Structure formats: structure tokens, C-alpha cells
Amino acid sequence: MAHLSGAEYLASIYGTEKDKVNCSFYFKIGACRHGDKCSRTHIMPTFSQTVLLKNLYHNPVIDMRQADAFSKVGQNNKEEQDYFDDFFEEIFAELNEKYGQVEEMNVCDNIGEHMIGNVYVKFAREDDAERCVKALENRWFNGEPIYAELSPVTDFREACCRQYELGGCGKGAFCNFMHLKPISRELRKKLYGDRRSPDRRRDRRGYGGGGYGGGGGGKYRPSFRFSFRLFCDLLGCF
């Protein structure tokens, strides 16, 4: 292995468990349960293909404040699925039309405060993602302000809970790895057409691995190209 300079080494470990300064969990998931109280730094990217719309989706099961609501999360019935599909299509269609091609859109089914209702939109181009964030400033949805920011998440395979994808997660909806809410097969075909669309619940290739927080995800090593570019951007190397 070629010897790495100091800057190259720091870039190579950026966002991994070896990084003692920056929060690897925020880098991988785009959200951290410790928030501003985290002992490690959360660095919001200055460029990314992915936009995070915080807490945008309101799960009607949770909103009804039922005594057994938490146990019902993830147990879709037709009424709830239709409600979610309508929401998903509305957001996807508007962003895809106004700001550029949406490669992938995912909605968290988790109920932890830092993840509940989070919507991740990955655009084909970084410029489109940046334009989207700026355009959504001071915008409202369903009577509430939209909170949009660029997210470090670009590979959702590493952010998702493997146990959940395989059929069951011991932490349930409070897991700190993404439990992605699936859209219907009909809507997937309508939105993505012939493009290969993501379907996390059917992916059985085992991306992630067990580990952090018991949820899944495992050890993550961001690409050297991406981490070095981000590190140098932060330091003003270029």
C-alpha cells in the first residue's frame, strides 16, 4: 500500500469508526440520536446529491396517538399504504419536475425523534440538490415549515438496518438505522419506469452487517475519492 500523507490519511478515515473527531454515525445515516450533544462533530456537507427533508412524513398511525401505535408501525394496511403512496408520489413528482431527475427517494419508518418521517431525496446531480435546498427555504407543507438540508448519505445500503430487511429488527421502530417504508409495486413502476428502482425490503444480498447499536449497518468505509474531496473542501485545499 502506498504511503499516505497526513491529509490523505485523515481523509481516508473520515466518517469511519477510526475517526475520533467526526461522527461516523451522522456520516453514514445523516442523523444522530445525540444531536447537538454528540461528543463528535457533525459536519454538514457543502455538496451532495442527497437532500434531507426532516420529519416531513407524518405517519397517520403515530399521529392518531393510539396506545398501541408504536407496535403498529411497519404493519401496513391498505388505507395506510394508499395514504403513504399519495404522499410519496406528490413529493417525488414535484421535486423531479422542478429541480432535476430524482434517482432515489426514501422515507424512514423509524419513530426515534431524530429519524421519524425523514425523507431522503437523491438527485442525479449535485447542482440539482443544492438548488432544491435553496428553493425550499421558507416553504411549507401540510401547514408546517419544510426543513431541508444537504445530507452526507449517498449509499443507502450502508444506512439501512440489515435485520429489518431480513424480516425483523429487535429494536423495532426505535432502531437507529434506517427502516425504509416501501411504496407499492404499482407506484414504483409508475415513478421509476424502466429504471432500476430501489426495493430495500427485497434485497437479500446482506449489505450492512450487524454491529453499531444492534441495528445493522456494520462497519462503513466511505470511498476515498468522496472523503478526500470532502475533507479538502472543508480545509480549503483546492
From TrEMBL:
Q: Which SUPFAM superfamilies match?
A: RNA-binding domain, RBD (SSF54928)
Q: Where in the cell is it found?
A: Nucleus
Zinc finger feature spans (C3H1-type): 17-45, 155-182
Carries keyword Nucleus? yes
Xref: InterPro entries = Nucleotide-bd_a/b_plait_sf, RBD_domain_sf, RRM_dom, RRM_euk-type, U2AF_small, Znf_CCCH
Q: Which residues form the RRM domain?
A: 49-153
Q: Name one GO molecular function term.
A: DNA binding
Q: Name one GO biological process term.
A: mRNA splicing, via spliceosome
* Region of interest (Disordered), residue spans: 194-214
Start and end residues of each C3H1-type domain? 17-45, 155-182
The record's section on Gene3D superfamilies has: 3.30.70.330
Q: Which UniProt keywords apply?
A: DNA-binding, Metal-binding, mRNA processing, mRNA splicing, Nucleus, Repeat, RNA-binding, Zinc, Zinc-finger
Q: Chief localization class?
A: nucleus
Q: Name one GO cellular component term.
A: U2AF complex
Any Pfam family from its record, for instance, is RRM_1
Name it: C3H1-type domain-containing protein
State the organism of origin: Steinernema carpocapsae (Entomopathogenic nematode)
Taxonomy of the source species: Eukaryota, Metazoa, Ecdysozoa, Nematoda, Chromadorea
